[in-house]
Design goal:
- This protein is α/β, with parallel strands linked by helices.
- It folds into two domains: 86 residues, Leucine Dehydrogenase, chain A, domain 1 (Rossmann fold, 3-Layer(aba) Sandwich); 124 residues, NAD(P)-binding Rossmann-like Domain (Rossmann fold), CATH 3.40.50.
- The protein is built from ten helices and eleven strands.
- Strand 5, helix 7 and strand 6 form a beta-alpha-beta unit.
- Helix 1 packs parallel to helix 10 and helix 6 packs across helix 10.
- The termini are far apart.
């Protein structure tokens, strides 16, 4: 059976280190500050925002929430972001997605100052990631890379297969793996013979957002499986993009769902916020 890569344990370790770092910054007169902007009343978004607020409290980051009604205009949202860009208490700005249909998401993300873009979604930060000189890495892919490192998995020369080509996970994690000297294959819904591509992987990163679409029998013996998917099946059950039980019999290491990549996403958001505070407060 595969070794379990415990995202909760890795996240707890990193959060402990961040809390110590925040104390040192406080002694230098700097309290890292994160602004979270939520537009509308999406239930999942509300849950994520409350989790982020609690995580900030746990490590000593100042958190300021802006809950706006669903009818908020694009102009009003852009004006708020402009004020936050110029607020010295705020080092990181997070706009919770998805936004209502009347708002241009791309325009909003581009309005956030790249130096406060702790989600790593601004085109400036995407470009820096692509050329291998990142300022802020997107939180979920960054969490994946930290998990691999903490699990002692060296990507040098490995065949990495990424299933999913989103701007939030698939594309950035592919570039991050390239920077770790892996050979990367990026797959998607129109990839021909997906089972064969998955079967090549020394390391599989599943980020397609479809419940258990990757069958355990596709996994190469001894492969490492990182399952980014979180899919609700029925009222209470959460499953990943990979058939966990069957894959566990073939993989050497695997992340569970829940308790795998999920806890790492918010942890890397905290990390990025602390880095932003250091950059802005200490002039690095």
């Amino acid at each position: 059976m595969a070794r379990i890569i415990d995202g909760k344990a890795i996240a707890a370790k990193i959060r402990g280190e961040l809390a110590e770092e925040v104390k040192k910054l406080a002694a230098a007169g700097i309290q890292p500050g994160l602004a979270v902007v939520l537009v509308g009343d999406d239930p999942a978004s509300r849950v994520y925002v409350s989790m982020k607020e609690k995580a900030c409290q746990d490590v000593g980051i100042f958190s300021d929430e802006y809950k706006l009604h669903a009818e908020t205009s694009e102009a009003d949202l852009l004006a708020l972001i402009g004020r936050l860009n110029n607020d010295p208490r705020i080092h990181g700005i997070l706009v919770q997605l998805p936004l209502p249909g009347n708002i241009n998401t791309e325009k909003v993300l581009e309005a956030v100052s790249p130096t406060k873009d702790v989600d790593g979604f601004h085109p400036y930060n995407v470009g820096r990631l692509v050329i291998g000189k990142p300022l802020f890495r997107p939180c979920t892919p960054y969490g994946v890379m930290v998990m691999l490192k903490e699990a002692g998995i060296d990507l040098t020369g490995k065949e990495v297969v990424v299933v999913g080509r989103s701007n939030i996970v698939g594309k950035p994690v592919a570039f991050m793996c390239l920077q770790q000297h892996a050979t990367v294959t990026l797959c998607h819904t129109r990839t021909r013979d997906l089972p064969a591509k998955v079967g090549m992987a020394d390391v599989l990163i599943a980020a397609a957002g479809k419940p258990e679409m990757i069958k355990g029998e596709w996994i190469k013996e001894g492969a490492v499986v990182i399952d980014v998917g979180v899919n609700r099946v029925g009222e209470k059950k959460l499953v990943g993009d990979v058939e966990f039980v069957a894959a566990s019999k073939r993989a050497s290491a695997i992340t569970p769902v829940p308790g795998g990549v999920g806890p790492m996403t918010i942890t890397m958001l905290l990390h990025n916020t602390v880095e932003a505070a250091k950059n802005q407060g200490l002039g690095d």
